[in-house]
């Protein structure tokens, strides 16, 4: 029982930290984004990045982390109260999977915008040249330099957990029908 309380405390601390840090980051990025809109000069965006894209991606990413933290709280407290997952838990897992895929796509979009010059689009001369440059760009920038595979991997793990919960709920429903 004591070990369970430590695990509950750890999950609560992680969810609280996620919510608070994401909220702080949103305020921070919006605070610097508003002056950027007026002057088109950023004091915090890296100089090699497109500042508008960088700000928007940071704000949206942290908003997603904030929402995920709130949903983690809901999922955790509901599980703690009932002792098992419900159909609503499947919706939360679907939300988390969507968050992971959205974060991967945001990272992909930001990487493409920031490194578009690497494609050398003005030098494309044939279909083979275009395929070669896009493949090289994809391999170098999207896989080696700034991979987004962790979000895709997490989405796959959450999908597997979702499948397990779906089967467990079906078995639970069948068992309850016998009783």
Kindly report the average pLDDT value: 85
Q: Report the uncertain regions.
A: none
Distance between the termini: 28 Å
Structural shape: flat
> What does the largest sheet look like?
none
Number of strands: 0
Structural notes for this entry:
With about 180 residues, this protein is mainly alpha-helical. The protein has 2 domains: about 1-85; about 95-115 and about 125-179. The chain has 5 helices and no strands. The protein has helices spanning about 1-40, 50-80, 85-115, 125-145, 150-179. α1 (about 1-40) runs antiparallel to α2 (about 50-80), α2 packs antiparallel against α3 and α3 packs antiparallel against α5 (about 150-179). The two termini are about 30 Å apart.
Question: Can you give me a brief rundown of this structure?
Answer:
The protein is mostly helical and 179 residues long.
Entry keywords:
5 helices; 2 domains; 179 residues; mainly alpha
How do the strands and helices of this protein lay out in sequence?
Layout: H1 2-39, H2 51-82, H3 87-114, H4 127-145, H5 149-178
